Amino acid sequence: YTSEVVARAQTQGLQVTHDYKEHAGAIPLPAIFAMELGKRIAQVQAGSEVRLFSAYPFPWRKDGGARDEFERDALQALAADASKPFSRFEVYRGNPVLRYATADVMRAACVDCHNTHASSPKRDWKAGDVRGVLEIIQPLDAVRSSATRSLRQLMMVVALLMGAAALMVGLTVAQLRRRSAELAAISYRDGLTGLLNRRSLDADLQTEWNRAERAGTPLALLIADV
Asked: Does the predicted TM-score (pTM) go above 0.70?
């Protein structure tokens, strides 16, 4: 926005100012544009908040400085190392949130404006300086609800898969049992005549022997050559 929009607008004589709404044909300063965009994002995502603040806010920014401990810590941490975002999970206005902050680094195209503006609170800016912090406050309730909903859906899918797997196992076991019984029946009969064979005799003889042992009764075996 700074290099592509503001620079081009200024060459066409357009005014770039913080109170652009009060001037016909004017456009907002980059920082004002970022804050307006943040407000639009917060309206779409309920409970979210986007803030741009600085250790050197312009005088028209009534809430342009750090408001609480997190923002003071973010300013200090990002001033020491602008490449590492600063974040923290905490309770904000009674709700659990994630607060995430990144450095707003002074661009070369912005240095001259900030150092020469009549209301600028600091006039020795250099490219690469941390001029402020961009913070996003994201409520965790929506994230938790989404995660819970996804987990519930996953559990339903897993339950369906387990049910399908159990059904498949049941059908397979039943088929194996039926096939085993068929094979057992075949193994006890002669393939040519269909009559019971020696295997059947051995099985029946063992069954009767066990019964006679339990009952203490004699066992008679009759062999006939037919």
From this structure: no
- The span from the CA of 80 to the CA of 1, in Å, is 26
Task: Give residue-wise pLDDT tens across range 58-86.
Answer: 888 888 899 999 999 999 999 999 999 99
* Token pair belonging to 161: 């898969």
Query: How many Å apart are CA 210 and CA 205, to the nearest integer?
Result: 9
**DSSP H helices in the chain:** 7-11, 30-44, 69-80, 108-116, 140-187, 198-215
Length of the chain: 226
Q: Are strands 16-17 and 27-28 parallel, antiparallel or unpaired?
A: parallel
Range 103-134 burial, b when 16+ CB lie within 10 A, else e: bbebeeebbebbeeeeeeeeeebeeebbbbbb
Phi-psi region at 194: left, alpha or beta (left = phi > 0; alpha = psi -120 to 50): left
What lies within 8 Å, CB to CB, of 84 at 6+ separation is 77, 78
Q: Residue 138: which residues within 8 A CB-CB, separation 6 or more?
A: 45, 48, 97, 98, 99, 100
